[in-house]
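Feature request, filed as a ticket because there's no other form

It would be nice if the structure record came with a short human-readable summary line next to the tokens. Right now we just get the raw output. Example of a typical job, pasted below so the devs can see what we mean:
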Amino acid sequence: MAATTNYYPIVGIQEGLSPGKDDPLRKVPLRMEIDDWFISTELLHINQRALFFPALWMFSQMSPHEKLSWFQIAGIHGKPFVSWDEPGENPAVDGKGYCTHNSILFCTWHRPYVLLFEQIIYELMKEVVNKYPEADRPDLLEAARTWRLPYWDWALKKPIDGDPNKRDYTVPLAVLDEEVDIRQPTIQGHGLYRNALYQFTMPGRITMGDPSLNDEDQDLRITASKILDPETGITYTFPFDQCEATSRHPKGTGVNQAWVTGKQDNQAIADAMRDYKWDPETKTENSKMGNMTAGLRAAYYRVLTIETFEDFATKRAPNHGADDPVTKDYAFDSCEGIHDNMHDWCGGDWTEPDNQNIRLMGHMAHVPVAAFDPIFWLHHCNVDRTTAIWQTLHEDPWFDGSDPRDEDLGTYAIEFKHRDKPTDPLRPFHTGDGEYWTSSDVREVTALGYTYPGLEKWLYTTNGVYDKQKHLDVLTKTLNENYNSDWSALQKARLTAGPGQPNLPKLARLRTLSDKPVDLKTYDYVVNVVYEKFALNGNKFTIHIFVGKVPDEVPYKTRTTQVGQVVNFSTEPGSLGNSDEGCGNCRNQQADHTESTGRVVLTNALITRWKNQIAHEDNDGNQSVLKSMNPEDVVSFLKPNLHWRATSMGALVNLPSLKVSLAVGEAEHFADRSKMSKYHNYRAAYEVTSGRPGGAGPEDRLYPPKYQYTIPSGYKD
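Raw output as currently delivered:
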């Protein structure tokens, strides 16, 4: 279906590549991890940085009236809710926005979106080449041709301050400073250059709501968001219209100068990502006594073990409570779910309101303006990488429109109740032939001109034939080493002291232990969460999970007992755009009471509590310790100690749709690191949650009756 002849063709960077796009062994450049690329001393990467940063700044300073400006490309994701590159096309839904969140198209729609961003930068990089002497241009053109947009591997623990023995989750080095030192066509040969990864800055430092953005063709002004707090009836104003630049974790109240010019608290992002560790004396986060919280690495790894594409791609709930309830190991976690948490951690929570009910939040935490922050593109490049890794591990599963989650609730471009299929257009993105991209078209990333480290199929051939098993063995080993903290925690727990063994180390580092790894089959404990995405009229909210007494302060700043959270990355559907326009998808999901899911893993945090016999005080003041990791002891321990709370706008909120359940399952971890761990056979332990506000019971049918766990009769706590 050709929409128009006046389109921008998104083809990816194809110069110098084999024309055989359908060849699965096609050799293409890699999208690199951004820290690896940014600090690399290779001449190729030095030259790429010399082109990239000037090109990125040029991109950011294009007139917002230009179709290929950063402003308009970011606007595809939400505000200002106008069509892009589709002259003459009518919307399929009475409402605006291309939003594919909570949809089976989440992963595939964002793939050509990131490709578009990458392609525009590449074209500008070639322009920068012309600023250099002719003798330098061949090497610089080669640098541009082999450059691809870097990704931010937020699930990988990296060296802190250059110390390889001190690792943690962190923010990319490339986003930290307003200027970067790069090669330049000057006598000095290098110098400081404006860094558009630090923040997006409006051209000419006009505001995002400047009247000049409204012309006779279309109104591009970014409006302030008016968000109603259904708990208090107060409408708060988020003045994105008055920003000259984007912010992360803004501070202060009202429209202050830092908000206008952009405030970047990148350390707050790192703090939000990091685990809380238990120390018996100081309770500092530098302790080696084990995690008290769910870890980002483990959550990421588990997403890669999900078996079906629907489970992996979207956090939208399947048809819970239907005549045929879920009978398999449905994954309450998803790629979209972990993506949502990162958006919230990057943007930050709401600030306190001023006397005019004005509040602030970082752009990444607000769906309609998230794509204006440059960290959005590094983040979504990693989401795309995660999808590509999953596809390599699970090559056959895809989607075909038959799953309940394939039913779309409509966007600007998709009709209400349409069954999404891989051949459906991913509007508004056009191919080089004038057609719209489809999910089938974007299924193989090498056809788009790139791939990721570890996915180079051409490295695993025998006599020209792809050796898939050899490739998977190497890939899985890398994934286990980088992300499978479940494996290392269980191996350490096996070899270190348990209660009553005072002469053995407790949760020592694995490399200090002499025993070789063994195959382990253990119990696994997770908290599953189901909720209506638009329960608070679409307002963003967070569901906090606690093991132990719930802290008194709200919002919850400390993590002494908070083990994890599920973020509902959402936004109010009815008052986001100009006048009364907003996201059609969001409106329809609200009317349909569409549910979303999330998961918090408890296993590693429970091991720390058991090994160290940490006394827990419940909300009634009673104390208990976890006696073992066996289900009867864990379930008994969690009855008085597992809690949950929902917050929005820094205050407690009531979610009538909330269903929280504890599930007991099995995890299999293998001594052979070329095998992925397996998580399966989950059963709902409703006795922990049933009858409590927001707690799930058998009547919610999250699991069929035969998949329910009960404490064995005769068990004594």
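Something like this underneath would help us a lot:
The CA atoms of residues 154 and 169 lie 7 Å apart.
The longest strand covers residues 520-532.
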